[in-house]
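>> Question from a student workshop board

For tomorrow's exercise we were told to take the sequence and the ligand below, predict the bound structure, and bring the output to class. My setup keeps failing. Could a helper post the expected result so I can at least see what it should look like? The ligand is pyridoxal-5'-phosphate.
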Amino acid sequence: MKDHEWLPMIPIKRGDGIWLEDYDGNRYIDAISSWWVNLFGHCNPRINDAIKNQLDTLEHTIMAGFTHEPVIRLSEKLVEITPHGLEHCFYADNGSSAVEVALKMSFHYWHNTGNPNKTKFINLANSYHGETLGALSLGDVALYKEIYQPLLLDVITAPSPDGFLREDGETYQDYAQHSFDEMDKILQQHADEVCAVIIEPMVQCAGNMRMYDAIYLKKLREACNKYNVHLIADEIAVGFGRTGKMFACNHADISPDFICLSKGLTGGYLPLSAVVTTDNIYQAFYDDYDKMTAFLHSHSYTGNPLGCAAALATLEIFETDNVLQNNIQLIDSMKKNTEHFNDHPHIAEVRQTGMILAIELVKDKQLKTPYPWQERRGMKVYQHGLKNNALLRPLGNVIYFMPPYVITPEQIEFLAETAWQGIQLATAD
Ligand SMILES: *Cc1c(COP(=O)(O)O)cnc(C)c1O
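>> Workshop helper replied:
Here is what the output should look like for this input. Compare the format with yours to find the bug.
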C-alpha cells in the first residue's frame, strides 16, 4: 500500500477489448489479461449479451435439490471438452475453493473406499494453488506461504520439473525426465499415506511462469496409476487455450482424476469454478442416505446462473471463432517479436508455452544469478509500461505476456517494443 505514495493507483473507468481506460483518458493494453482471467477482451459484446439475457431470466437459485438450464448446459459442455473420462462437475465460486474441493473429495474418496490411511498430498516445488489455507498448503511460493506455515497442512514436496533449472547442455525434456526420478521415489515410499499429487500442468504461472516438458505429465500419470494415487490437475490458470491447446493436459494426452477450472472459465467476467472428475470417484459417494457417504461441501453461490451464462458464451466463442487455430498466428507473433531478447546481457531466458511468454531478467546471464529482489527491476519495467499504454505487471523480475486472445499481431509488436525499452531502462545500471 505504501508504494502508492509514489505510484498512485490507477482508477479504471471502462474496458474495451484489449484496452483498459482510466479517468484521464489514458489507455492500457491488458497484456496480462487482468491476472490471467480475461480471454476475449473487456466488455465483449457476446458475453455481455449472454449475461444480460440471463439476468432477466434467473439471477441465482439454490442448487440443493434444484438445478437450472445454464448449469446443466455448462456441465455437458465441460464434460465434452475436458480430457476423456472426466464426467461429473462440481461447482464453486473461485479457484482456491475448487482446489479445496478436489483435495477434500480425493481424501474422502479414499476414506469411502476403505483407505483411511491416505491423508497426505504431494505437491511440486515452486507451485501455486491459491490462498485459502488448504490450497496455500499445497503451494510452494515462500512469498505467499511462509508467514502462515504454522497454520498449514503438512505436504510432501517433490522437485519441480521447471526447465529453467536445467544444467548446461541439458534440454527441457532431459530435465523433466530426470527430475521425475525423485517424484517416483516419493510415490513409491509414501503411496499408502498419499491421496493425490497436485500439479499445474506445463506452466507454474504464479511461480514466475516457469515451464516444463510434457513428458513429465505422461510419467506422472503412469506413476499415479501404478501407485494408486489420484492426479489433480490445477488448470485454473493454464486451461482454456493458454498453452496453445484447450487444456494443458492435452499436451501429454493424459486425463487427470480431477481437473480444477476457473479464471478463464467465464471469460474473465464472473467468479465461478468447476472441478470435473471421473465416474469412478462420483460412484464412491453415491449411496443411500443412511450410509453417510455424501460429499457435504457447498458454497452460497455454487453454480451461479450468471457465471454459467458467461462461461457458455465464452465456450461458444471458442467454437464459432476457431480460436485455438487462430491463436497459432498470435503465438508465432509473440515468438518472433521477442527472438532478439535472447541476446540481451540481462535476459537469461525467453520461454514460451502457447499464449504465455515469459522473459527472465537476471544479474548474471551465464550463472543465471537473479537480481536481488530488493532492487525491484521488474517494477521499473512495469512503470515504463504504464507510461506507454501497456499493463505489464511482472512477477518479480519476470516480465510476461499472457494477453486476451483478441490482441492483434500489431499490438503484440507494440508490447514487445515497450517491454524491450523498459528492460533496457531497468537493467541499465
Ligand atoms: C489463480 C490460481 C488459483 C487460485 O484461484 P483464485 O480464484 O484466485 O482463488 C489456483 N491455482 C492456480 C494455478 C492459479 O493460477
